[in-house]
Each structure stands twice: as structure tokens, then as C-alpha cells.
Write a structure and sequence with these properties.
Layout (H helix, E strand, L loop, with lengths): L11 E2 L1 E3 L2 E3 L4 E6 L6 E7 L2 H19 L3 H17 L1 H12 L3 H18 L2 H4 L4 E6 L2 E9 L2 E5 L9 H10 L3 E5 L6 H12 L7 E3 L4 H9 L3 E7 L2 H13 L3 E5 L4 E5 L5 H13 L9 E7 L3 H13 L19 H16 L3 E4 L25 E4 L6 H4 L6 E7 L2 H10 L2 E2 L1 E5 L3 H10 L4 E4 L15 E2 L2 E2 L6 H7 L1 E9 L17
Parallel strand pairs: 1-5, 8-9, 8-11, 9-10, 11-12, 13-14, 13-19, 14-17, 16-17, 19-20
Antiparallel strand pairs: 2-3, 4-5, 6-7, 7-23, 12-22, 15-16, 18-21
Helix pairs in contact: 1-8, 2-4, 2-7, 3-4, 4-6, 8-9, 10-11
EC number: 1.2.1.27
Enzyme class: oxidoreductase
InterPro entries: Ald_DH/histidinol_DH (IPR016161), Ald_DH_C (IPR016163), Ald_DH_CS_CYS (IPR016160), Ald_DH_N (IPR016162), Aldehyde_DH_dom (IPR015590), MeMal-semiAld_DH (IPR010061)
């Protein structure tokens, strides 16, 4: 994927350090338009020295930013919010051009990002500490939350606007400075985001971007001046980030992959469950960490449910993301498309039934403006029935437009399946039975639960995070837990002594 051949000067997606663009690099990687397969730019891949320069700039910016008043930080966040709103269309088109998702889906990504900025703009309230007067005679105690220093964010390809904005607003609202390492697959939107932050009045050096691959990531994980790392990506890399970062004394939250189950009980509203399975299974071509990957059909609903899903899947319009008639775009790379197709083949070979074979579907819709999309990384949706837990398609995170249906006899069987899965990001249940839904809420081993809601991504004033192999660390991301993650607490005990009553006392201080 990467090249040691220097890219042409035009079309380089570079770093932004201290407000300055940096386009020089020793290595570059290709950036594709997944709808055509063409290389549209080259991304600079940072060296250790590039990362060190960005961290040094962020460290130098820290004292000034940490002492910037809360009302000024809020002003900047409000201005940034306005700019994000007014540039929503531009951001969405840029996301679509490098990621491939349809523009309306990318607009949704920006909407969810806005919620995180809104939450962070409440920082004067969120940073309030406790105060206890007279804990002993003449002694008061109060608590303050102070920023950590330089925080780093390492983000995946699938939400190139939203996931960086899961991290940056709360990190900087708390007074930290930031180094973002975006995905090298769709790096351009990060440059637009830092441009808008600068336009909003954020001082140079507070948020920096280094483009790159594992060289940049590993340097951030080892760098002595990086205090904390937020990571979102696949589970093997999340585990590596958590283990390496914590070994180097950092605070780390590392969100990993997922295998989200949607349990459909026999009493569920059939059409609503089928609509939800299709929307959450194939939206963004299944490249969402909260995508539904497995439908668990309980009891006699199985045949009717599979049929209802099949008719919907066969009607889906697959095409370029910038065509308003497309419902689903291409996958991120040709390699990933081939890997997903191989999972479909494995399901067939291991004994599952292929109800809809996306590899054999009709060609995709042509490009909206007559562009040739025959070289695009498209794969039509597949539906696989009678999947068993030992099948490869069930065991692996597919991260593509493939929905597996596992049939079970009882609610208990369904719950066991969810809980035995090594991932625990989201889990959903469709039912009209309040008692069953409540039991699912209490007993399902996952961080985010949907009741008749297939993709239960928490709103910006709650926090987002999975359990088990879907998150390493003890903090969820954005929302209240991000304030905790981005600050450290200091407790101050104070007395204003009266010289007349002051004495020497070598005993351990007791509160009286
Ligand atoms: P990825 O793990 O390949 O890459 C994520 C980041 O890590 C990128 O910035 C990449 O440059 C870097 N990276 C990749 N390999 C590395 C290595 N060996 N060492 C160090 N750094 C490395 O993930 P992706 O393919 O970009 O994104 C898809 C994955 O992210 C899926 O598994 C998906 O479930 C997951 N994801 C999870 C969440 C969540 O909230 N839990 C959200 C979005 C995506």
C-alpha cells in the first residue's frame, strides 16, 4: 500500500504543524477514489522526526492554551460549530470522495460530530470541581481538574470526520493540546477540520495533524511528551496501542472492532426488524463499527424474517457515493473488497446458505456524471442464512456488506450467543415484550444496547464504548467520560492559620 517513491508535488496531503502545512516526506501512500479506483492524491507518511516536531510544537503550545480562559475556549468552540455547520456539504463530499460512502451518510457523520462540539462547549460547567468547607476547624478542601498536556488521537478510515471530533473537542476544551494521526486511507478531511479550527480562532499549535502509518503511531505511543492516547480502529491494533502506550506510562483508551448482533424475538414487528437489519447491516457498506453483522432469529420468525430481509436487500441501489440515487457505495480498497468477498465464499464452503450473493449481483449504477466506475471497489450486499458460530463469517469481523443470520431456538440461546462473542460493542433486540427487553438490557455483555433501535450510538452527552475485545482501557470516548479521560484531578486542602493557635504536633493529621 505504501511507496518509497516520492509523490509528485501536486496532490500531496501533508501534515499541519503549528498552523503550517508540511508537504515534504520521504515516503508517501496512495489515496484512492474508491468509486473509480483511481489514485487521486498521495499522503505524506510521517517519519519519527516529523512526529517529534509535531509533539514539540504541541508541548510548546500547552502552557498558553491551558491558561486560556474558559470563556475564550467556549467562544472558539461555538465558532467552530458554526463553521462545521456551514461547511457540512464540503466535508461530506470530501469524506465521500476518499471513503466512498454516500454523501447523505457522510452528512450524518458531520451531524454526530456537531453533538460532540456542543457537549464540549459546556466545559465551564463540566470542569467544576467539588468544594467542602470546614472539613476540620478552619480547613477547607476543593478539587480541580487540570489538563494532562499533549494528547494524541489515532483514527480509523471509516469515520474520517466524526471520530477525530469524538476526541478533539473535549481534549482541547479541557486545556490540552493535540496531535491527530488520521487514517492514511482518507486523510484530506483532517486538513479541512484543522483549517476550520484555525478559522474559529484556535491558536496555532493547539491541534496538529501528522499523516502516516504505523511508524507515526508507534512513535506517538513511545514519545515521552505524549500524556494520553485515544485510539479507534481494529482490535489487534487497539490491543497493540493499549499495551505499548500503557507500557510507556500513558493514559490510553483504545476502541477496537465489533461483531454486533441484532436479536429478533418471535413477537417482534417483522417489517420494522427487517428494515432495521438492512439499514444497519448495509449502511456505509457495512463499514461501521456499530453495523449489524449478525441477525439472531429466535424461534419461528426465522423464515419470514429472512424472506423480508431478502426482498429488501435485492432492491438496494449500489453506486458511487456522490450519486444521490445510490444507497450504498464501494468499499475502501480493492484488497478489503476481496477480503469481504472471500468471507462470503468461506460461508458457502463451510455449509451456510447464500440467500443473496453480492458477488454475483448486477453491475453498479453508473457514475452520476457519466464517470466510469468499472474500476471501483464495489461489492453488492450479501445475505447468508443458517450461519453457525464456528463459521469463519461469524468468527471474523467482516466489516463489509454481509449480513449473517444465525437461527436459535430460544431467547436464552440468543443471549448466550451475544455473551459468548469476544466482541461487545453494540447489541440490539427487537421485541414487543418489555420483560424480555429489560432482561436483555441487564444481561447482555455489550457497552451499548438498542431496544428496537439497531445502531444504539449514544448521543453526545453520554459516552461511547464497547466491552470485551471492543475496548481496551477503562474510559469510553466523548461525553462525560472524555472529561475524566482528558484531565487529572488535584485535591487542595487549605487552612489560613491563626498564629495564636498554631502548635507543633507530630501525630498523623486527624480531622476534628
Ligand atoms: P486499523 O486498525 O487498520 O487502523 C486504525 C489506525 O491505526 C489508522 O490510523 C492506522 O494508520 C493505524 N494502524 C493500522 N495498522 C497499524 C499497526 N500495525 N500499528 C500501528 N498503527 C496501525 O482500522 P481501520 O481499518 O482504519 O478501521 C476499521 C476498524 O476500526 C474496524 O475494525 C472497526 O470496527 C474499527 N472501528 C471501531 C470503532 C469503535 O468505536 N469501536 C469505531 C470505528 C471503527
Amino acid at each position: 500500500m505504501t511507496s518509497t517513491v516520492p509523490a509528485p508535488p501536486a496532490g500531496v496531503v501533508g501534515h499541519v504543524v503549528g498552523g503550517r502545512p508540511v508537504r515534504e516526506a520521504e515516503r508517501f501512500g496512495p489515496v484512492h477514489d474508491p468509486a473509480t479506483g483511481h489514485v487521486t492524491a498521495h499522503v505524506a507518511l510521517a517519519s519519527v522526526d516529523d512526529v517529534d516536531r509535531a509533539v514539540a510544537v504541541a508541548l510548546a503550545a500547552f502552557p498558553g492554551w491551558a491558561s486560556t480562559g474558559l470563556s475564550r475556549r467556549v467562544e472558539i468552540l461555538f465558532a467552530f460549530h458554526e463553521l462545521l455547520r456551514s461547511h457540512r456539504d464540503e466535508i461530506a463530499h470530501l469524506v465521500s470522495a476518499e471513503h466512498g460512502k454516500v454523501v447523505s451518510d457522510a452528512e450524518g457523520e458531520v451531524s454526530r460530530a456537531l453533538e460532540n462540539v456542543e457537549f464540549a462547549a459546556g466545559i465551564p460547567h463540566l470542569l467544576k470541581g467539588g468544594f467542602s468547607q470546614q472539613v476540620a476547624t478552619g480547613v477547607d478542601v476543593h478539587e480541580v481538574k487540570q489538563p494532562l498536556g499533549v494528547m494524541a488521537g489515532i483514527t480509523p478510515f471509516n469515520f474520517p470526520a466524526m471520530v477525530p471530533l469524538w476526541m478533539i473537542p473535549t481534549a482541547i476544551a479541557c486545556g490540552n493540546t493535540f496531535v491527530l494521526k488520521p487514517s492514511e486511507r482518507d486523510p484530506s478531511v483532517s486538513l479541512l477540520l484543522v483549517r476550520l479550527l484555525a478559522q474559529a480562532g484556535l491558536p496555532d499549535g493547539v491541534v496538529n495533524v501528522v499523516q502516516g502509518d504505523r511508524v507515526a503511531v508507534d512513535r506517538l505511543l513511545e514519545h515521552p511528551d505524549v500524556a494520553a492516547v485515544s485510539f479507534v480502529g481494529s482490535t489487534p491494533v487497539a490491543r497493540h496501542v493499549y499495551e505499548t502506550g500503557t507500557r510507556h506510562g500513558k493514559r490510553v483508551q483504545a476502541l477496537g472492532g465489533a461483531k454486533n448482533h441484532l436479536v429478533v424475538l418471535p413477537d417482534a414487528e417483522l417489517d420494522a426488524a427487517a428494515d432495521a437489519a438492512v439499514s444497519a447491516g448495509y449502511g456505509s457498506a457495512g463499514e461501521r463499527c456499530m453495523a449489524i453483522s449478525v441477525v439472531v432469529a429466535v424461534g419461528e420468525i426465522g423464515d419470514r424474517l429472512v424472506e423480508a430481509i431478502r426482498t429488501r436487500v435485492e432492491g438496494l441501489v449500489v453506486g458511487p457515493g456522490n450519486d444521490p440515487t445510490s444507497q450504498m457505495g464501494p468499499l475502501i480498497t480493492a484488497e478489503h473488497r476481496d477480503r469481504v468477498a472471500a468471507r462470503v465464499q468461506s460461508a458457502l464452503e463451510e455449509g451456510a446458505s447464500l440467500v443473496v450473493d453480492g458477488r454475483a449481483g448486477p453491475p453498479v449504477a453508473p457514475g452520476a456524471d457519466g464517470v466510469d466506475v468499472s474500476g471501483g471497489f464495489f461489492l453488492r450486499p450479501s445475505l447468508v442464512d443458517h450461519v453457525l458460530p464456528e463459521h469463519t463469517v461469524y468468527r471474523e469481523e467482516v466489516f463489509g456488506p454481509v449480513l449473517s443470520v444465525v437461527r436459535v431456538r430460544t431467547f436464552d440461546d440468543a443471549l448466550r450467543l451475544v455473551n459468548e462473542n469476544p466482541y461487545g460493542n453494540g447489541a440490539a433486540i427487537f421485541t414487543r415484550d418489555g420483560g424480555a427487553a429489560r432482561r436483555f438490557e441487564v444481561e447482555a455483555q455489550a457497552g451499548m444496547i438498542g431496544i428496537n433501535v439497531p445502531i444504539p450510538v449514544p448521543v453526545g452527552y453520554y459516552s461511547f464504548g464497547g466491552w470485551k475485545g471492543s475496548l481496551f482501557g477503562d474510559s469510553h470516548i466523548y461525553g462525560p467520560e472524555a472529561i475524566h479521560f482528558s484531565t487529572r484531578t488535584k485535591v487542595v486542602t487549605s487552612r489560613w492559620p491563626d498564629p495564636a493557635t498554631s502548635t507543633i504536633d507530630l501525630g498523623f493529621p486527624r480531622n476534628r
